């Protein structure tokens, strides 16, 4: 076991695209953890989806061995974290397992909204933070201006900020030296009862559940009977290992070390992220504090395109929830889509990634309903109802008032685009809280309804600012609002999968946009199809899909005109009857496409 004084556990935190994964590549390369023939760019982004999109989705860990200038050998446990706000829970879990952070800031772009959020998260975990100004090889790099910005905006001492280029490898040696000289070693005692924090877990088809742990006290060795303190489950440790970044088996993990353990765990429910692992024969007295439970902010129904895939979807969601602790799900039924699950996410990108992972990793074809947030419905009898699904909204006569969640959004934007950003926030029912300047960029703080923000605010923000604005948010309580349920009726039948809760002032515009979109998507049938948007009993928008007209008089050559009229009247009567009893066939792709309406 390594001496605690020679161990450093650190996370790399930064805004999106500031170079976290590339810096991790250079550190791995410099420490010689991988043979050159096995090396590739973004080596820690192992998921196909991460490499395709160029973003980090899962926090990854790797153990490096570094020979410092003082001649001592150090064990560095690196955690590369995601940068997008939707994966903030991944970041918070990684920070809890470390004592220090490398704060990577782009020397040309400077401090962004997510940079601030990560700094506050690191400080909440009592981290020592080492600022690194990356991309100094760029012509647009302004290290002195960015140093000043870190001090003014983030409140960190940046005079000793390191200059580096993760692309060229410049300054990497200084970064490694700073890790061993400026970050504190972990604390812990090897002779105390085993106490290890369950940081992450994932399902392996051959080994069962693989658990990523950070040992705080004691020694985690092969053959130890591990007890999960939250669930009470007991399993024997079969394999203990570390990532270099390839999995490598070792005898034991000591205090302050990060590694993985497998124990033939078949039941996903036995592994709760944030749980404490201890030795069943010599248990620890009290569990570790664990992580603050995540609160999903966006809910959507996920239904299998084929009803026979329901059981496979249930198993796949359980395995995915093990790997992604911020994702929650429970069964639900829809009249239009059948059996499925109501799922909770941290944002729309999170929803998109989960859907894509279910498709790629488990081969599932899914239909998702319109994203919705949690509303609080106050009833006239004094009861309060938490509403995830618009289809479950009680009758208007029972409702006293409805509250919706609000967020506090921090937007950093160049002065040239400030007007467009303010107009966008006002259009989304935003209330300005603060407006300050950090150099030539404005920092705007707005209170916004979460419902307005989850749909396409991020995309619209990037659009109106030509990609220069950065955005971060945190939940800021509930407030009463004039909200209504907008139903969609197809030939007089309500379709629960398309129901939505909207603000009364936006209801008509949303209803018209949705009806127009459905008119383009629903295939024509042998009878007219009425598409209507309604609030209660009042129709607010309508479109009609015209019917196919079969030429029944095609074989009627010559003769009296009454012969043709007779055939046409017969067709008209048949169409009336068909419309009265006919069921409209809607392909499941229509639901997905209809919910992507751009009402911006």
Description:
By secondary structure, the protein is of the alpha+beta class. The protein folds into five domains: 4-182, P-loop containing nucleotide triphosphate hydrolases (Rossmann fold, 3-Layer(aba) Sandwich), CATH 3.40.50; 195-279, Translation factors (Elongation Factor Tu (Ef-tu), domain 3, Beta Barrel), CATH 2.40.30; 298-371, Alpha-Beta Plaits (2-Layer Sandwich), CATH 3.30.70; 376-481, 2-Layer Sandwich (Alpha-Beta Plaits); 485-594, Elongation factor 4, C-terminal domain (Alpha-Beta Plaits). Helix content is 27%, strand content 33%. It is built from 13 helices and 31 strands. A hairpin with a 2-residue loop joins strand 24 and strand 25 (441-449). Helix 7 (310-323) packs across helix 8. The longest helix is centred in the C-terminal third of the chain and has 21 residues, at 561-581. The radius of gyration is 29 Å and the shape is globular. 44% of the residues are buried.
- CATH fold field value of the largest domain: Rossmann fold
Helix content: 25-40%
User: Distance between termini?
Assistant: 58 Å
Query: What value does the Rg take, in angstroms?
Result: 29 Å
**Fraction of residues in β-strands:** 25-35%
Q: Biggest sheet: strands, sense, closure?
A: 8 strands, antiparallel
Shape annotation: globular
Low-confidence runs of at least 5 consecutive residues: none
> What is the assembly state of the chains in this entry?
single chain
CATH architecture of the largest domain: 3-Layer(aba) Sandwich
Mean pLDDT: 79
Q: Count of helices? A: 13
Number-wise, the strands total 31
- Mind telling me the CATH class of the largest domain? Alpha Beta
- The structure class reads alpha+beta
Strand order of the largest sheet: 11-10-16-7-8-15-12-13
